[in-house]
């Protein structure tokens, strides 16, 4: 029998502490309802559950984004439904005006209603918004002002209106020789040879160029000169792709530098940045200098590249890992777009001079200051005829959906023109300069409605309205199909969220019945441990009896 060390009491005390610690853990799980409350509870399970949480939250937000996209489509389609009704009414009025029993006075009244309906079409197209974004006038989206048409990857930008600066073609200082244009619209190619376009005056050169272009394109599209002698080429159908590149070495556009931005993965590079390129020079002169600018409207992706001339810049993030490539690296970690543009401008490229635009800090000005930079990445200035936006319908990068809504303004539907002698596309139909319509929103915007003043023109207008109805029906049909697709997308996202949440619950949540049973056991053991510790502490008292005897 020993007095200095009470081993049974020490053992009872140790077990009591163990039971108290286990009871505290069980109480924590019962209080939180979670099996994993800290990394020490289950390190691997915690790592897995946190990744699952990110996916679940991303899926829920993606589902909301999808529903927002459906709401946008419903808003657009509702407005288009009203426009369709007005087109049907205008066609009905054209049929009435084409009737031989209708008098000139009757046609004037019909014309008044046509003008009002045409104005209302424009008002709806220009005024319909979703979350303050105008969705039916076409010139919204990441590249609302500019786009690059020919990328070095061979991917075409999806845009309809294009133009190029052709100072040499209209300068009147020489003839157009040894050049050809290759035009792609909706996947079809047309080649225009310019070696026969000799002209002595500006107008004859321009007219000959237009004639050659329109003859080559046929029904694919048309070319016109806009204000400022800018050549504009438009496809006849919304949603088609178009490219315009120059083949040859000099004359019209001369030697240009190649500028391309490419993201890793299946990203359409046409919606990454905006840029413009103009060329200064004269005919019969080797054009070695070219100036341009590129506007970054979002942060570059890791691994994406920007090629300028013969140099390539590659973007990386130092927090992910060091740069191991062979291009000119730009670290995007903790940097703004302005910082990146400034850093690119400080890179020294042979034959290229760069600087940040003093007016727009996210625009990079590029100038080829020496001959020898050739390429097909020619910027062609234009305005998209579609509203384009990206819906993030997945929880991860690269899981976006490109939503396109066609332009339904009266001019794009072919029922009005910005010029009184505009081309209706239908023989016999015409616009009149005394028939002005306005949308009531765009100040200073005047368009000319279809002329129904005669039986012949009213008859031709029927076909114009038929074409507009078919065109709008195509846009609405595409939106309807997209809405159906997004509804399935939302349902799938909700189903995936449910299943992933169930998997997360099996890893993270506590089994309350099991934990309560464990708590009851530990509670009994704790009470028993306290009682036994008291008994163990009393055992040395028996030694006093030996000492007393």
UniProtKB/TrEMBL annotation:
Residues 3-139 form the Flagellin N-terminal domain. Pfam families: Flagellin_C, Flagellin_N. InterPro entries: Flagellin, Flagellin_C, Flagellin_C_sub2, Flagellin_N. Its main location: secreted. It is found in: Secreted; Bacterial flagellum. GO terms for cellular component: bacterial-type flagellum; extracellular region. Residues 463-547 form the Flagellin C-terminal domain. GO terms for molecular function: structural molecule activity. Keywords: Bacterial flagellum, Cell projection, Cilium, Flagellum, Secreted. Flagellin is the subunit protein which polymerizes to form the filaments of bacterial flagella. Belongs to the bacterial flagellin family. This is Flagellin.
């Amino acid at each position: 029998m020993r007095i200095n060390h009470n081993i049974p009491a020490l053992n009872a005390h140790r077990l009591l502490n163990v039971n108290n610690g286990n009871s505290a853990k069980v109480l924590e799980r019962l209080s939180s309802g979670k099996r994993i409350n800290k990394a020490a509870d289950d390190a691997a399970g915690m790592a897995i559950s946190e990744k699952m949480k990110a996916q679940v939250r991303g899926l829920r937000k993606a589902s909301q984004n999808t529903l927002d996209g459906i709401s946008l489509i419903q808003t657009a389609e509702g407005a288009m439904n009203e426009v369709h009704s007005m087109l049907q009414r205008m066609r009905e009025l054209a049929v009435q005006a084409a009737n031989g029993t209708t008098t000139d006075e009757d046609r004037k009244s019909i014309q008044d209603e046509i003008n009002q309906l045409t104005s209302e079409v424009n008002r709806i197209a220009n005024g319909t918004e979703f979350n303050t974004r105008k969705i039916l006038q076409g010139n919204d989206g990441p590249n609302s002002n500019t786009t690059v048409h020919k990328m070095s990857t061979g991917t075409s930008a999806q845009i309809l209106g294009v133009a190029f600066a052709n100072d040499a073609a209209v300068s009147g200082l020489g003839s157009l020789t040894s050049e050809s244009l290759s035009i792609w619209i909706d996947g079809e190619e047309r080649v225009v040879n310019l070696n026969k376009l000799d002209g002595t005056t500006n107008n004859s050169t321009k007219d000959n160029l237009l004639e050659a272009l329109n003859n080559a394109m046929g029904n694919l599209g048309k070319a016109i000169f806009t204000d400022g002698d800018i050549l504009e080429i438009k496809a006849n159908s919304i949603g088609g792709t178009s490219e315009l590149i120059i083949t040859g070495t000099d004359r019209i556009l001369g030697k240009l530098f190649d500028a391309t931005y490419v993201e890793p993965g299946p990203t359409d590079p046409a919606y990454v940045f905006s840029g413009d390129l103009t060329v200064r020079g004269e005919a019969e002169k080797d054009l070695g200098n070219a100036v341009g600018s590129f506007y970054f409207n979002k942060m570059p992706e890791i691994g994406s590249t920007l090629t300028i001339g013969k140099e390539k810049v590659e973007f990386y993030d130092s927090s992910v890992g060091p740069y191991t490539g062979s291009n000119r690296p730009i670290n995007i970690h903790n940097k703004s777009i302005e910082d990146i543009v400034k850093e690119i401008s400080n890179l020294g490229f042979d034959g290229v001079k760069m600087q940040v635009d003093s007016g727009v800090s996210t625009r990079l000005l590029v100038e080829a200051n020496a001959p020898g930079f050739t390429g097909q990445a020619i910027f062609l200035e234009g305005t998209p005829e579609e509203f384009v936006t990206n819906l993030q319908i997945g929880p991860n990068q690269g899981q976006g959906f490109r939503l396109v809504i066609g332009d339904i303004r009266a001019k794009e539907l072919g029922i009005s023109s910005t010029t009184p002698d505009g081309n209706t596309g239908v023989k016999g139909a015409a616009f009149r300069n005394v028939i002005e319509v306005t949308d009531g929103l765009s100040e200073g915007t005047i368009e000319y409605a279809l002329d129904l003043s005669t039986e012949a023109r009213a008859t031709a207008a029927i076909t114009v309205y038929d074409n507009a109805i078919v065109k709008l029906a195509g846009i609405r049909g595409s939106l309807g199909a997209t809405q159906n697709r997004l509804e399935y997308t939302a349902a799938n996202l909700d189903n995936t969220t449910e299943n992933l949440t169930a998997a997360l619950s099996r890893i993270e949540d506590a089994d309350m019945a099991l934990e309560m049973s464990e708590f009851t056991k530990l509670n009994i053991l704790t009470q028993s441990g306290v009682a036994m510790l008291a008994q163990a502490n009393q055992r040395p008292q028996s030694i006093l009896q030996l000492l007393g005897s």
